[in-house]
Specification:
By secondary structure, the chain is an alpha+beta fold. It has helices at 23-95, 100-127, 139-156, 175-191, 246-256, and strands at residues 2-8, 11-18, 135-137, 159-165, 171-173, 197-206, 209-216, 260-264, 272-278. Helix 3 packs parallel to helix 4 (175-191) and helix 4 (175-191) runs antiparallel to helix 5 (246-256). The structure holds adenosine-5'-triphosphate (ATP) and magnesium ion.
Length: 282
Amino acid sequence: MRLVPLSQAGRIAGMGCILRDTTHRERAFQSIQSSSQDLRKQMELSNAQINELQSKLILAEKMAAMGQLAAGIAHELRNPLSVISTSIYFLQRTLAPLSAKSAEHFQLIEAEIQRSQKIINNLLDFSKNSEQGRTRVDVAALLEQILALVKKELAVHDILVRKEMEEIAPCHVNADEIKQVFLNLILNAKEAMPYGGRLLIRAHNEKNTVVIEFCDSGVGIPDEIKDKVFDPFFTRRQDGQGTGLGLSIVHSAVQRNQGRIDFTSTPNRGPTFRIRLPMFHP
Ligand SMILES: Nc1ncnc2c1ncn2[C@@H]1O[C@H](COP(=O)(O)OP(=O)(O)OP(=O)(O)O)[C@@H](O)[C@H]1O
Ligand SMILES: [Mg+2]
């Protein structure tokens, strides 16, 4: 509202009042404000998406670089190791009969050679990059095979397995690699529950993927190591048994099969590892 003096023959004859309807202006202002808020929210969302994508790319690049390095080392080590293995075999035969002490040392050497061979095989698995061998696979049946394999081992450690499996579609994957993925995740869960516990395995279809979850009631994964668990050679196992390659192999195998893997872990609770595998389309 605005007041204006009205003059007549140089004298103020009265006051005029100008009223302006500003509703439309306020409405326009409010709409601009809410659009700018929407825009800000969208920008925040896309920033988060970019950050997530970036960290995935960094991980993928790190994995690829580590894969090449690992394959190189593994190939270089395989030959000398097999020479050592053969020489040990001949030495044992040449020196027979062996004293108890010597026999013990030979056994130790053989066990360590086997352990090194296992590490080398794991390294080669981790660095595989072919996408071959993907067929129509009944993933639920695959899981049953693995569970049958580890059933006794889990029972001995007081680990109860529960399954909540919906009817899942066949997947387009390499069966051997996915078996290894399941085995590694189950063995990790076992390691995380030294005094027993529960392992829950869930599965359902989601869009074009089959989702399989492994949820354990073990020690959990603390925030400070969340970024490291997929790194090759990262291990927290105290017994010197872990190579730290388990989850790296899982990660690269899932990626090779055009799947995805992630996990969530709340403090003082075991993690949930979630795998998404592509459905088979004939
Ligand atoms: N289910 C789990 N609960 C708690 N911690 C886990 C779990 N799975 C993995 N981790 C942590 O991640 C680390 C890396 O796992 P990864 O499978 O790569 O290696 P590892 O189990 O230590 O050795 P390997 O697989 O060669 O036997 C483990 O040492 C453990 O600390
Ligand atoms: Mg492991």
